[in-house]
Amino acid sequence: MNKKTNTYFLAILTCLLWSTVYASIKIGLKYEAPLYFASKRFIIAGVILLPFAGKLRDYISVIRDHTKLLLQVTVLQVIMNYLLFYLGMNLVPGALGAIIVGSQPLITAIVAAVITDNNTVTRKKMFTIVSGLAGIVLINAGRQALRLGSATELLGVTLILGANISTSLSNVLVSVNNKNVNPVILNSISLLAGGIIIFFLALILEKPAEEILPASYWMSLLWLSFVAAFAFSTWYKLLQRPEVRVSELNLWKFLIPVFGAIISWIVIPEEKPDIMTVGGIVIISTSLLLFFSGIKGITFDRAINK
Known about the structure:
mainly alpha
């Protein structure tokens, strides 16, 4: 497997793991308040990574030499992203929330184009983004009615967009500041620190669960912790590769709703394929194939801003 193929494989695998997150979060939130649940997830994920990240002196070195990046990732990726995400998703219908979350590749492309010099928004990239967003709309319209009918829901949309901007900034910063930063240590420290801060916020803002939590809760928590530990570490590693552009890597995230729909068909008896959902999957898959396969049949190559 060459490096390019390896990048594609790891990006697709990471998106597959992320596609399982929403169902697991729904299970956990049946039994515990959002901030308590999120804080436990991130603390456990940070601890899981400790044996794999390196020795104590490696942690000390990263903390000493990359303090600014650690603070940025902790605040943007772990704290702000998830606080805004959980708050926003509680205010909007699931289908609408999924579409707003799915706009992240577009926001990342814009943020990367503003901050960096090698992430120009080309016609080819914009075509893929628009196609991906159209596919997400179809997938979610096929599964739920779409609506935006109140000021509360508008606030929810705004919060989710804020979460997208936050995680996009974090992605770009990791991509730009890629000088000898161990991605596993970066992920472990940011998850631990972010989880502890969210836990103290939960102590102030929420009530802890008073009942004995069932096995399904602990299974969802452990799975989410594993996904956070593995997926973010892998994603940071990909962002640090010199040949990888952050705006292009994030295009793979359009696969998350595709995998989510397919998994639902497999595990949920009530979920069945429908024309709109299948159409959305075909649109997303085709647009990504055209972008990453190097097919030259359509002339997208001139940059929009040139």
